[in-house]
Specification:
This protein is mostly helical. The protein has 18 helices and no strands.
Length: about 475
């Protein structure tokens, strides 16, 4: 059949019902997770190859990327509203509303890009105001003035990805992102180091690679959307110039709390990077490596969470309360299982993982490695909490519940997380490792609050 729905309780045993949700969640969630990992591989490749240039260049890239991701994630967060809107409309068999949501998502991506460029152009000045080293700030500014042009194709890609995944065609998103990751690695190798006669552009070369790969991905998804028979029927690009302000306002109303939630979470890590820069360049470089590794494992529960969001939205469109619960809990427990495995890997092989990002002939490599191993051991502790909080937020968004989770995120990430990070690092005297324990506490508090809210969804009137 053309689309699947969460299982109905009629005539099935409890174990059959759970199995009926586990398989479709994995079939949808694993390609999304794979695409997220492939996307992260693009960033990881940049960090890895830039790390071979030296600690100063790596520190600059960490600062630039953290600012970029703040701007990009706010836009992506608003676009997340397309998923529950389109999924619920599809579950309720309203194809016109699916089309309206996706079209206005594309409009938002274009409109949001212009002010984003205005901010990112002044990256060097922003870093100097934040008290960063002058040389590192200058390198970060040069890098950003190229990389910033990837934000438009990246956001357009997210708008199309949301539509394609709601239509349960996530495999094409995976393969398009894998192709982009391979292309990015090749361009990085040629332009960062100047191999095979290409100019040695270092950080600027990495920025060019980011723009090229983002542009390739959106072109592939546009072609697929226009040619695939089931997707073509929705005609999401037909008369794209026509405005639909009521639907745009609905996206903004539902999406801005999601955007703020994502922003405060990533701002927690970006704020940690700024504080790490106050401690020194080498701790900042080590922080970038540990954060990059933690981000890789984070992509899998993010994919499972988006699958849970879609299936919860479909179940809500069908007004099936039992299926809402099954879809949410399957995604949550799947994320917990994966992150437990990730924690074991971090705990067992920290030196091997950190070593991948360093040129061991560099005289600073041993010190960066020692600091990075310490950070990665703390990251192993908060893996479970990180997985639960992202899936908890996603399944609640599937119920169009965004404002209260936003408040919980602000309180947990900044009230608990950032407060403890600063207190442990500076007044407490624990330095960089204190910052990482603060991050762990913030993630733990949010994960517990979101799980409680989903468990009480019916009593709270969310279903």
């Amino acid at each position: 059949m053309s689309w699947s729905t969460p299982a109905s309780p009629g005539g099935l045993s409890l174990s059959d019902l759970w199995r009926s949700d586990i398989r479709p969640t994995l079939m949808l969630g694993l390609p999304i997770a794979g695409a997220q990992v492939a996307q992260m591989a693009i960033n990881t490749t940049d960090v890895l190859m830039i790390g071979w240039l030296g600690a100063t260049e790596l520190a600059a890239a960490v600062l630039a990327f953290n600012l970029f991701i703040l701007i990009w994630l706010f836009g992506m967060g608003v676009l997340q509203a397309v998923i529950p809107l389109a999924a619920t409309a599809r579950g309720d068999r309203r194809p016109r509303d699916v089309r309206r949501a996706v079209r206005m998502g594309i409009w938002f991506a274009i409109l949001y890009t212009i002010p984003s460029w205005c901010v990112l152009w002044f990256t060097e000045d922003i870093m100097l105001v934040l008290g960063q080293d002058r040389e590192v700030s200058a390198l970060a500014g040069d890098y950003m003035q190229v990389m910033m042009f990837s934000i438009l194709p990246s956001l357009l890609t997210m708008a199309l990805r949301n539509f394609i995944t709601v239509m349960e065609k996530a495999q094409v998103v995976l393969w398009a992102t894998v192709a982009a990751a391979l292309m990015n690695a090749g361009i990085d190798y040629l332009l960062i180091f100047g191999h095979f006669g290409f100019p040695r552009l270092e950080l600027v070369g990495a920025g060019i690679a980011s723009v090229a790969t983002a542009s390739l991905t959106v072109v592939v998804l546009v072609i697929y959307t226009l040619r695939q028979r089931q997707l073509r029927r929705y005609a999401i690009l037909g008369r794209i110039w026509r405005s639909d302000w009521p639907k745009m306002l609905e996206i903004l109303r539902l999406g801005w709390p999601v955007a703020v939630t994502l922003l405060v979470e990533v701002a927690l890590f970006s704020g940690a990077s700024v504080m790490m820069g106050w401690i020194g360049t080498l701790p900042l470089a080590a922080h970038g490596i540990a954060a990059q590794l933690a981000s890789i494992t984070f992509m899998v529960p993010l994919g499972l969470g988006q699958a849970g969001m879609i299936r919860v939205g479909l179940a809500a469109g069908h007004r099936d309360r039992a299926a809402v619960g099954r879809a949410g809990w399957v995604a949550l427990f799947g994320a917990m299982l994966f992150m437990f495995c990730g924690a074991l890997v971090f705990w067992s092989f920290p030196e091997m993982l950190v070593r991948l990002f360093l040129d061991l002939d560099n005289p600073q490599a041993d010190e960066v490695m020692a600091i990075g191993i310490t950070f990665l051991l703390v990251a192993a502790v908060f893996q479970l909490f990180d997985g639960v909080q992202v899936v908890g937020g996603c399944v609640l968004r599937g119920l169009s519940d965004t404002k209260v989770p936003m408040v919980l995120a602000i309180l947990g990430y900044w009230g608990v997380g950032m407060g403890l990070a600063y207190g442990l690092a500076f007044p407490g005297g624990f330095g960089g490792v204190g910052i990482w324990w603060g991050l762990a506490a913030g993630l733990a508090s949010v994960s517990v609050a979101l799980m409680w809210r989903f468990a009480w969804r019916e009593r709270l009137g969310l279903v």
